[in-house]
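Entry, Tuesday afternoon. Goal for today is a structural model of the target with S-adenosylmethionine bound, before we commit to ordering more compound. Inputs were pasted exactly as handed over by J.K., no edits. I checked the ligand SMILES twice against the vendor sheet because last time a stereocentre got dropped in transcription.
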Amino acid sequence: MTVCETEISRVTRPKEATKANYDKLSKWYDILAGRSEKKYRDAGLQKLRVGKGEIVLEIGFGTGHCILSLAHLVGESGKVYGIDISAGMLERAGARVEEAGLSERVDLKCGDAAKLPFGANFFDVVFMSFTLELFDTPDIATVLLECQRVLQNGGRICIVALSKKGKPSVMTRLYESCIPEIL
Ligand SMILES: C[S@@+](CC[C@H](N)C(=O)[O-])C[C@H]1O[C@@H](n2cnc3c(N)ncnc32)[C@H](O)[C@@H]1O
């Protein structure tokens, strides 16, 4: 068993505040984090080995970069679903999907990952990047249980998240301290 000795900060802001923050941030998100986080998102997607015809869920899809990659990977016979709490992010990701001509294989919804609006055993794959750390510690277990519920037996999940190992990066500091204040 591995014991985690690093203190992680509790997330005390209410979900309405998270939603409002990301609505505002949706216009700037690609400039702020799009480039710096891309290599980690891509590494996560690669590990998942998503194949043609698979049914995939992305939680917290943001401006939709990974939704697009996933839609290419599942091909015409597959389907990608996405859920995000922010209507602003939904609008941006939806426009990106439409522009790429991939609307038929993508279904994006606004909602809370702690209560996924999908039936049990529905997905082959669940993907999440830079989203799980936005939940308060007890809620992380709720979200992971929801992922387990909607995943088929033998389904795959990949979570890309910030780490507190080593020197804190600018993004780690932003997430932990001032993201709510700068918005
Ligand atoms: C830091 S952004 C990451 C976006 C994208 N995954 C990426 O890597 O670029 C976190 C995303 O999670 C969404 N989010 C935050 N809380 C959520 C919740 N309770 N349920 C669903 N999505 C949530 C935000 O609206 C935002 O789009």
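The CA atoms of residues 142 and 155 lie 18 Å apart.
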